Amino acid sequence: MPRFVEALCSEIAQRATQFSDSQIPAETIFIGGGTPSLLKPEYLDRIFSELGKWFDLSRVKETTIECNPGTITLPNLIDYRRIGINRLSIGVQSFVKEELEFLQRIHTPGEAEESIRLARHAGFDNISIDLIFSIPGQTAASLDYTLKKAIGLKPEHISAYSLIYEPETPLYDEFTAGRISKTDDDTDSELYSHIINTLLSNGYSQYEISNFSLNGRKCLHNLKYWKCEEYFGFGPSAHGYLNGERYWNHKNMNEYFKSINDNKLPTKGSEILSRKDMIVERIYLGLRAEGIDTREINNEFGIDLTVLLSGMLKEYEKEGFLKVTPELISLTGKGYAVCDGIAAKIISEIFKK
Can you give the pTM of this predicted structure? Predict the structure, then answer.
């Protein structure tokens, strides 16, 4: 762990000095990937000390750390607050014991509830919890149980993701071996609709396909991704986006360490986004979140979407998939369920020859 933290701090210094010779303004910090709550507070102190050398942290509005309920303790939470972390993202996933066991999570439903109570006791007033649906064997009733438990704990933010079978994971191996079956698309859609309806009826607002906030407590950091704003990424597997270039780091720890030891950035690859790439990302990411700002698209790319897509937009609005104003094209709850299809048709129309 000390070696990892020092390598991370070295990367922070290398990237920051390459980008600017003065302190860089920052508005959000997100400590995620894996289980960063395993980091001892002294390691977090070291990381934040390094960040403070290169970034102006005085204007940071939101600092999040991802936590696994099985690793949360009250002393650590108190240290998080001291360090400046003001938002927790807790990987609850489910409040059903059998579903957590299927997902091979190390925590129990009781530990998940206790982690939120401890966070409140430590003074956190901005808590997000992650939930997973379409778990094999999950029913509408078991999902409803999880949702009611979640709502009862009143987190300011809830993210709900359909289960993904990532290559090179035990779950993916089980699936490809035929030992488990994916939830079918119709059931997945029904469960997703149930999540939306339940959360909306309990005071949450949907501001992205998978994200819901209470009392306007949206994730400011994720909004930057969805608005295609610039960001630094540090650490193995991290991605960043600076000056129109996207980069990604080695995910293999040995390769990451070797780059740092050789005084090189641990960049595995990068790409310069073309004008078309940028437009495509603005459409996809804008639609899946709070909407496409048509004035920004026109100012930056010289495309008047309200004129170019007039007929298509009217049809989608009539069918209840879109809300359209002179300034914004956004999805309805019904539209979120078919976001990719709508985005693909809009992109196709923009670049139609």
Answer: 0.93
